[in-house]
UniProtKB/TrEMBL annotation:
PANTHER family per UniProt: COA BINDING DOMAIN CONTAINING PROTEIN (PTHR42793), PEPTIDYL-LYSINE N-ACETYLTRANSFERASE PATZ (PTHR42793:SF1)
UniProt name for this protein: Acyl-CoA synthetase (NDP forming)
Species per Swiss-Prot/TrEMBL record: Brevibacterium aurantiacum
GO function terms (MF aspect): acyltransferase activity, transferring groups other than amino-acyl groups; ATP binding; metal ion binding
InterPro entries cross-referenced by the UniProt entry: Acyl_CoA_acyltransferase, ATP-grasp, ATP_grasp_subdomain_1, CoA-bd, GNAT_dom, NAD(P)-bd_dom_sf, Succ_CoA_lig_flav_dom, Succinyl-CoA_synth-like
Domain ATP-grasp: 685-722
Domain N-acetyltransferase: 34-184
Length: 904
């Protein structure tokens, strides 16, 4: 019974060569979910059922002939495949097959592909998803081209091929359209996939957050029970849709009519809120699926956060829900909220809510849900939507980000994340969302080293600041605390984005003005104008005059106002004028009214917008100057990031991916899963050459005579380097000798290096590289490869022990734009050495950037590259030289965000 969460991978040992890694839960075009997996012999009955339910027209379009039933011989052939030369993938909802995609290999590098989509499910994007997954499976088998024969009237199938983003060619012969296309990912196919994924996932979240009917299952008649509280909260929020309760005995709970079963409801519920014991959750989810429920919110605890047994209950519940087309929020969720006037839903455990506003909140912690909502209410910040993911077993921050990107009611996004199951996907989505809406993430472990109970993610061995840099690359703003999140949200929710870094400071305390100036400069803001320090007992008129003068200045982008209680002006009067002046000027403003309470209303003013609507503008006020400056500085950083030119992705013609694939496949031909393979040095040079990266020539010698001959061939001066990794880059240990310009010097140095190799590692036949001597410059280290957590990652640093000891390394995820490559180089603390430090000539960093961009494309396209290290690449005044490189490969790539759509 696969539809009950038991997929073939659960007993794959009985099925030879079953590729369990091809299984996936996917989101369809309309936001529903389905399960995709390879076909197995036990699917024969379900396949027959699907075929016999098809219309005669659909059967004819697939088989080019009337075929009311599948002949037994054909049926057996369809369900018995080898998962290599003959592959078939099926998509299921419950126990019903709703789509089939298959390919049959017709040559070493090409295969014929065919699809069959159930009539009742056509138009849901099933063919496009099957094509993505078939192409990924085919590439694993070395297939690079798909062909298909399609009847001209089968326009929907022809559209699937055409719209996939591949370069499709067509031919017409004997009444049939022959379609051919390469299946290697292209820029266009990747864009198409991301766009479809975005639309589908955004719609699936909208289904959860915009229900027209809600049913609460598991509510008790006891007032202090979870279910009872949920019903009271939904009722108190004046939910605009229908609210029902399922209880086997009660007639009503909390004033809401109760029904004995889901079957007794007067309609179909869009959202089921489940508060039953964990052991009963899967059964309840199955009942929901049987009655057409679209999504479930699981408040119940007792799942993965309790241990292995609970984790299995959680897995079965989620698998069942997805298999029947439903999304899951939770389990162990605090609930969800949608403040939109046409929804007004509080399906949470919060007894209070902030006002309606423009801040979207997401929390992985149920316990912190109350804290987030309470903080927003206390600050006077309105929210648009709130989602507590609990154990994040299904719906994640990635999903909700997809929704918020499109949601007109959400202007700012706040996330509390304890872990990120798919950081690469998060970074990819956040890059896009940050260009239109600020994203604030409360700092937590995130890398998976100290996971909270119930959270399952991969871990990374990289430095803790790596993910900070990756999220910074995506424009995400990091906050250490809930306090900081709302400090910053106040600016984004109430003010225009700062136009620049120039700040003006005004207040009635010289000491406070000095603190603000010092803090602003330390946070990267520019205080070029003298602060206006008024007398502590300044009157309101003088303060107003000076404030208006500051807003009128052209050399100030933002204003910081501080005011302390005194015998002079009334704080309420100052606050009222400040809010009006700030609203008129449109300059970003933050305030610090020290020791003053009760001016919140005066800090808000009302204006009429261009459409004649009355809108409020509030100046955010902070309890301390540090908070005000920090929030303004981060808002300014974001504004500058958003306005910046982020560059262009590399588009070059001299990339030989076929050559790279040939080298990789040959090297991995005898590899074992999970065991890294070190590429031969000659193959490393050849692979890099396929991407236009040339290693400075060298010849490996085993004796002094061979070394002398190599030097004569290369030409003096030369460098000598121990081949062994222990000594190769260790000049201080004698493993490297430079600027050798005569045979006599070479003989002496070669002998010395061989002697050291014998002493250090005991090699009786030590090898030494004789290499062209590179011009003087700055040696750098570039790394690229597949991180288990972040996917294809690049790192840059200067060579040397100091860099390693201090961790002065920049990191970015692929793909890289030209600007991002340049930023990588400039962002390390030691970068001044490349730009004329202490009178040295500046180096040409363009070759470094070019290599970073090329490697970005290389590791993006070839996930088998576990680690590629260029150590060193020497940057000179005019060019760059790669002196040494090594590559480790892995037969089974670890990438979790791949060229096929799946829920993760």
């Amino acid at each position: 019974m696969y539809g009950q969460g038991l997929s073939p991978s659960a007993y794959a040992g009985s099925m030879e060569n079953y590729p369990a890694g091809w299984e996936a839960d996917v989101v369809l075009r309309d936001g529903g979910t389905a399960h995709l997996r390879p076909i197995v012999p036990a699917d024969a009955e379900a396949l027959s059922r699907m075929h016999e339910a098809q219309s005669p027209e659909s059967v004819y379009l697939r088989f080019f002939a009337p075929l009311p039933r599948l002949p037994k011989r054909d049926l057996e052939r369809f369900v018995n495949v080898d998962h290599h030369d003959r592959v078939a993938l099926i998509m299921l909802i419950g126990d019903d097959i709703i789509g089939v995609g298959r390919f049959d290999k017709i040559s070493a590098t090409s295969a014929e592909v065919a699809f069959n989509i159930a009539d009742a499910h056509q138009g849901r994007g099933i063919g496009s998803i099957l094509l993505e997954h078939l192409a990924a499976a085919a590439r694993e088998s070395g297939i690079r081209k798909f062909t298909a024969e399609v009847l001209p009237q089968n326009r929907s199938m022809l559209q699937v091929f055409q719209a996939a983003g591949y370069e499709v060619t067509r031919g017409f012969d004997d009444g049939v359209v022959a379609v051919n296309f390469d299946i290697d990912p292209t820029t266009r196919s990747i864009e198409v996939q991301a766009s479809r994924e975005h639309r589908a996932e955004a719609l699936s979240v909208r289904t959860v957050l915009h229900p027209t009917s809600v049913v609460v299952i598991g509510a008790s008649r006891k007032r202090n029970s979870t279910g009872h509280l949920l019903i009271r909260n939904i009722t108190a929020a004046k939910f605009t849709g229908d609210l029902w309760v399922v209880h086997p005995e009660a007639d009503q709970i909390a004033g809401v009519q109760a029904y004995r079963t889901l079957e007794d409801l007067p309609g179909t519920a869009d959202l089921a809120v489940i508060a039953v014991p964990a052991e009963s959750a899967t059964e309840v989810v199955q009942e929901c699926a049987a009655h057409g429920v679209k999504a479930v919110l699981v408040i119940s605890s007792g799942f993965a956060e309790t241990g292995d047994e609970g984790a299995e209950l959680q897995r079965r519940m989620v698998a069942t829900s997805r298999a029947y087309g439903m999304r899951v929020v939770g389990p162990n969720s605090f609930g969800l909220v949608n403040e939109a006037a046409d929804v007004s839903l509080n399906a949470s455990l919060a007894p209070f809510l902030p006002d309606s506003g423009s801040l979207g909140l997401f929390s992985q912690s149920g316990a912190l849900g109350t804290a987030l909502l309470s903080a927003a209410k206390n600050r006077g910040l309105g929210i648009s939507t709130f989602v507590s993911a609990g154990n994040r077993a299904d719906m994640s921050g990635n999903d909700v980000l997809q929704y918020w990107e499109e949601d007109p009611d959400t202007k700012t996004v706040g996330l509390y994340l304890e872990s990120i199951g798919n950081p690469r996907k998060f970074s990819r989505i956040a890059r896009r969302v940050s260009r239109v809406k600020p994203i604030i993430v409360i700092k937590s472990d995130l890398t998976g080293r100290e996971l909270p109970p119930g959270h399952i993610v991969r871990t990374s061995s990289l430095a803790p600041n790596t993910l900070d840099q990756v999220l910074g690359q995506a424009g995400v703003i990091r906050a250490d605390t809930i306090h900081q999140l709302f400090d910053l949200a106040q600016v984004f929710s109430t003010q225009s984005l700062p136009a620049g870094r120039r700040v003006g400071v005004i207040g009635n305390s010289a000491a406070m003005a000095t603190l603000l100036v010092q803090r602003s400069r330390s946070e990267g803001l520019h205080v070029e104008a003298e602060p206006v320090s008024l007398h502590p007992e300044v009157d309101a008129e003088r303060f107003r005059t000076e404030l208006d003068a500051m807003y009128a200045r052209d050399d100030i982008d933002s204003v910081i106002v501080t005011f302390t209680p005194s015998a002079g002006a009334e704080e309420a009067e100052i606050a009222a004028h400040l809010s009006e002046a700030a609203a008129r000027s449109q300059k970003t403003t933050v305030a610090c009214f020290l020791g003053i309470h009760g001016v919140k209303d005066e800090l808000t003013t009302y204006l009429t917008d261009d459409e004649g609507a009355r809108v409020s503008r509030t100046v955010p006020s902070y309890v301390g100057p540090e908070d005000a400056v920090w929030a303004l500085a981060r808002a300014t950083d974001y504004s500058r990031w958003r306005a910046a030119d982020h560059g262009r992705f590399l588009e070059i013609e001299d990339l030989d991916d076929k050559g790279v694939r040939s080298i990789i496949e040959s090297a991995l031909s005898d590899a074992r899963p999970g065991t890294p393979v070190r590429l031969e040095r000659s193959d490393t040079r050849a692979l890099l050459s396929c991407y236009g990266i040339e290693v400075l020539p060298y010849i490996t010698a085993a004796s002094v005579e061979e070394g002398l001959a190599a030097a004569e061939e290369i030409g003096y001066p030369v460098a000598l380097k121990a081949v062994t990794n222990v000594l190769r880059h260790r000049m201080e240990l004698g493993g490297v000798r430079l600027n050798i310009d005569s045979p006599e010097e070479l003989r002496e140095d070669f002998t010395a290096i061989q002697r050291i190799i014998r002493q250090v590692i005991g090699d009786s036949d030590p090898l030494v590289d004789v290499q062209t001597m590179a011009p003087h410059g700055v040696p750098c280290v570039i790394r690229a490869g597949e991180d288990p957590l972040l996917g294809p990652l690049l790192s840059f640093s200067l060579a040397g022990d100091t860099t390693e000891l201090l961790g002065d390394v920049s990191h970015r995820v692929a793909p890289l734009t030209d600007r991002e490559a340049g930023d990588m180089i400039k962002s390390i603390k030691a970068s001044p050495r490349l730009f004329g430090y202490r009178g040295l000539p500046p180096m040409n960093i363009d070759p470094l950037g070019n290599v970073l961009e090329r490697l970005s494309v290389l590791v993006e396209r070839h996930p088998q590259i576990r680690e590629l290290v260029i150590h060193p690449m020497v940057a000179t005044e005019t060019e760059g030289h790669v002196l040494s490189a090594r590559i480790d490969l892995l037969l089974d790539p670890t990438r979790i965000d791949s060229t096929r759509r799946l829920l993760s």
